[in-house]
Design goal:
Layout (H helix, E strand, L loop, with lengths): L3 H5 L1 H18 L5 E4 L4 E4 L4 E8 L8 E5 L6 E6 L2 E3 L11 E4 L7 E6 L8 E8 L4 E11 L8 H34 L1
Parallel strand pairs: 2-10
Antiparallel strand pairs: 1-3, 3-8, 4-5, 4-9, 5-6, 7-8, 9-10
Length: 188
């Protein structure tokens, strides 16, 4: 009998082809690595942050899933899948504030833009590329810096101006009252 019967039966042929294909995938996987910035990325409070990562060797990531997440896989910041951005899994605090920059996605380079940076945005981010046969990720760190002159609410500015004017008026009135009282004392 030997192995000839294995390739004569249609179901055995399919089974053999599947096994052979799986062996090829295990033996020669489409491997790549993901690289991100080794240095922390700095962003100003209220400004924009751009986190970048890329594939090595250079290859297109158009048909891959690109997932940005925080400390847990389920803490989704942004997902690109099936050629478009997917917002269903995105954490509420990032809705409307993220954009995946895909200008160089055919070269395996993507960047995540985060707008209106908040203190809670500071920390670790993971960039994951997933193909049909392999996945790799890289971690990046975002540091949020306070502005030298932090943004102040308009009502606080208005209140400050009113209080300063009030102080000047009270000081001026006190001076005038004192001077008038002094002159009355000199006349007598």
């Amino acid at each position: 009998l030997g192995t000839r019967w294995l390739f004569r039966s249609p179901s055995c042929t399919n089974y053999s082809l599947h096994l052979w294909f799986l062996w090829l995938l295990v033996r020669f996987p489409a491997q790549f690595t993901v690289t991100g910035s080794e240095c922390p990325i700095a962003a100003s409070l209220g400004g924009e942050a751009v986190l970048s990562c890329h594939l090595s060797p250079r290859m297109s990531a158009e048909s891959m899933e690109v997932r940005w997440f925080r400390s847990r896989f389920s803490a989704v910041v942004h997902v690109y899948r099936d050629g478009q951005d997917q917002f269903g899994e995105q954490m509420p605090e990032y809705r409307g504030r993220t954009e995946l920059l895909k200008d160089n996605i055919t070269d395996g380079k993507v960047s995540l833009r985060i707008r209106d940076v908040r203190p809670s945005d500071e920390g670790q981010y993971t960039c994951l590329f997933q193909s049909s046969v392999s996945h790799e990720d890289a971690s990046l760190e975002l540091q949020v810096a306070e502005l030298l002159f932090p943004r102040v609410n308009p009502w606080m500015v208005t209140l400050g101006v009113i209080l300063a004017l009030l102080f000047v008026l009270i000081t001026l009135a006190s001076y005038c009252f004192w001077r008038q009282h002094r002159e009355k004392g000199d006349v007598r």
